[in-house]
Specification:
12 helices, five-stranded antiparallel β-sheet, Aspartate Aminotransferase, domain 1, seven-stranded mixed β-sheet, binds pyridoxal-5'-phosphate, alpha/beta, about 15% strand, Aspartate Aminotransferase, domain 2
């Protein structure tokens, strides 16, 4: 058995040395993985219960066209999301084109000229800078007279409660809290910490809307931020909750009045949730949500495996090998451009799609250095599928995430190590 597995890995380009280094690393993670499986089990039951409660049936997988009036599949899916997230309402649509769009809709729907938006957790995700107008941009909130204030986290990663209290004023209408660190070095926030922050904000003024950017965080824990006081939670369906099957989409869940504002903004005043044809893709939204807890579990195992593997080799990793996890992103600081390129080529070589393609760094719009990206995905740009990217600049860190199955994530990480070993960047000889 062992022999034939080794043989199979060798056909995929993984040497016996790399494989056994990986197997030793995995051996030490048994307990960690068992705890992830417990979360997967809990969240799987949560999703099944939500589907049963809302009497999901095969008629819900039929699509509508045109206006999409009385789209039963769409409306029932929104009830299922509301059950999963424990919220009053949900907006789950293919017309929400991505996470950034869902966040932009939620923000612009619930803010009016003269209002102020506050981020108490530092700079938000890159694409949000243009939505807000931190970087001047056509159609930004700033252009509509909505101001923005930011309070950074303290050097130790804690909330600057004093600073937040000072920043809140009579115009503060909405607070945006990003759960994941995204591509920064700050810690990712646990649902518990998000709950503490929301309680503090509500203690200053209870009418401030608390919104959480939940991207990459769904199903990592047993509770979602909407169960810890968030008025709105927003995310992308080509990340965690789409389970790899949703071909497009975003969601906004929360209090009815705020979700309805978002629906009027997404479609039109007067129309709201009543329109928006599902075009026959509802089935993949349901099935993706059903698979999502397992898929997220696999991605988490991959992230933890990589952290431990590269930590053993002496590379700085964030989060580190033993930290608790609140999103699925893993950063590995490799220190040189050659290493970053080799790593990404390894991830690409392990993909089920486009494995024969060689990723190259290029000058991507919106970035101040060349960027290299590896992805061989069924859904283009899907980052719940195994993917990696890195700006070619110091400290030469690579960020990676996803993996629809744990064994694919494992192969991808072994393949990255294989490329590093072949390039002479790491040696496994003295490590075993
Ligand atoms: C991915 C991401 C977004 C943006 O989502 P897109 O689908 O890429 O537009 C926003 N915030 C965070 C934290 C993210 O990880």
């Amino acid at each position: 058995m062992r022999q034939s597995l080794e043989n199979m890995y060798s056909q995929l380009g993984i040497s016996p040395e790399v494989l056994s280094f990986g197997q030793e690393t995995e051996e030490e993670l048994k307990q960690r993985f068992a705890r992830i499986d417990e979360t997967v089990e809990y969240n799987q039951m949560k999703v099944i219960r939500a589907m049963q409660e809302n009497r999901v049936s095969d008629i819900h997988f039929q699509g509508t066209t045109g206006y999409g009036y009385n789209d039963l599949g769409r409306d029932t899916l929104e009830k299922v999301y509301a059950s999963v997230f424990h919220t009053e309402a949900a907006l789950v649509r293919p017309q929400l084109t991505c996470g950034t769009h869902a966040l932009a809709v939620a923000l612009s729907a619930n803010l009016r000229p003269g209002d102020e938006l506050l981020s108490p957790v530092g700079k938000p995700y890159d694409t949000l800078e243009e939505v807000i107008g931190i970087r001047p941009s056509a159609g930004s909130l700033a252009e509509y007279g909505i101001t923005y204030r930011q309070v950074d986290l303290l050097p130790d990663g804690g909330f600057d409660y004093e600073g937040i209290r000072k920043a809140v004023n009579s115009r503060t209408k909405l607070v945006t809290i990003q759960r994941s660190k995204g591509y920064q070095t700050r810690p990712t926030l646990s649902v518990e910490r998000i709950g503490e922050l929301i309680r503090f904000i509500k203690s200053i003024r209870s009418d401030i809307i608390c919104m959480v950017d939940n991207c990459y965080g769904e199903f990592v824990e047993q509770r979602e931020p909407s169960e810890a006081g968030a008025d709105l939670c927003v995310g992308s369906l080509i990340k965690n909750p789409g389970g790899g099957l949703a071909p497009i989409g975003g969601y906004i869940v929360g209090k009815t009045s705020f979700v309805e504002q978002a629906a009027y903004r997404l479609t039109s005043p007067g129309l709201g949730k009543e329109v928006g044809a599902s075009l026959g893709i509802s089935g993949s939204f349901y099935q993706g949500l059903f698979l999502a807890p397992s898929v997220v579990g696999g991605a988490l195992k991959g992230a933890i495996f990589a952290a431990n593997l590269y930590e053993r080799l002496g590379f700085p990793v964030t989060p580190n090998g033993s930290e608790s996890r609140h999103d699925i992103i893993q950063a590995v600081t490799l220190g040189t451009p050659e290493a970053v390129i080799a790593f990404c080529r390894g991830i690409q070589a392990a993909a089920p799609v486009d494995s024969y393609v060689t990723p190259e760094p290029w000058a991507m719009p919106g970035y101040d250095s060349d960027v290299i990206m590896a992805a061989g995905a069924f859904v283009q740009g899907s980052s719940i599928e195994l993917s990696a990217d890195a700006p070619i600049k110091p400290p030469y860190a690579v960020y990676f995430q996803g993996g629809l199955t744990w064994y694919h994530a494992k192969l991808g990480i072994l393949s990255s190590l294989q490329k590093l070993a072949e390039a002479g960047i790491v040696s496994l000889k003295d490590k075993r």
